Amino acid sequence: MPDGPLIERNPAAIRRAVLEATTSGRRVGFVPTMGALHAGHLSLVEAAGDCDDVVVSIFVNPTQFGPGEDYTRYPRTLESDCRLLADAGVRWVFAPPVDALYPDDDATRVTVDGPSQRWEGEHRPGHFQGVATVVCKLFSMVPATTAYFGAKDWQQTVVVRRMVRDLAFPIDIVVCPTVREADGLALSSRNVYLSSEERQRAVALSAGLSAARDCWQHGGDAATATAAMRAVIGEQAIDVDYAAIVDPVSLEPLSDSTQGLPAIALVAGRVGSTRLIDNMLLS
Fold this sequence. Notes:
Elements: E1 6-8, H1 11-23, E2 28-33, H2 39-48, E3 53-58, H3 78-87, E4 92-94, H4 98-101, H5 120-123, H6 127-141, E5 146-150, H7 154-166, E6 172-176, H8 196-217, H9 222-234, E7 239-246, E8 264-271, E9 274-281
Parallel strand pairs: 1-4, 2-3, 2-5, 3-4, 5-6
Antiparallel strand pairs: 7-8, 8-9
Helix pairs in contact: 6-7, 8-9
């Protein structure tokens, strides 16, 4: 697609275009993003290439940022993002203005109880309500066949799956593996905030997750695996919000008696002023 994707800002227009494609029998893959694209996002676009057409949304969603968070300084790089997406063969980029999703008299929010309550839900009140609301709106505006999300935001994928099930959205959800730097750091648009010294320390997050996985796979229980994770992360003086071994579907903490069952390690912490999250399947 040498001329690049069509950049559409109007919700009615993108909905009409996607419906025309699906009605004609074409499968449309959808990758929702907040922009500042990196190789992790592009891996989702590549996975969506299994479909006939791909649409990528670029929208920094204000309702998922809490007071004092980085909404105003979150990277906005639409021009360079579109160049990357042109090389990836994307058909449409949906980049709506804020008032297209949140008009002045907007009064509706979507709340997903259960998997949204713990972890990020505790530390970022209202975050998942904002996520569920914007994804619900985007799925209505972009009625695609399949949507693609990254496993790095594991709790988000669980919340989205629950919303899709409960509200009977006619869309399949595909969760793709986390993409990491060579040293293990999970790719994130917020990594650009890290100084060179903070960048080196941030690797402790993935190293701690790996320690938990090794402990778990060698017969350790949840408490031992959690301690191994915290020990590695603690060596770099990262301010940890949470580090836990949980059920990958319910996100409830696992007790020591559940060793050997499916499990995922979750971690969130601040490296300097930058808050990062990561996770790793243990079994």
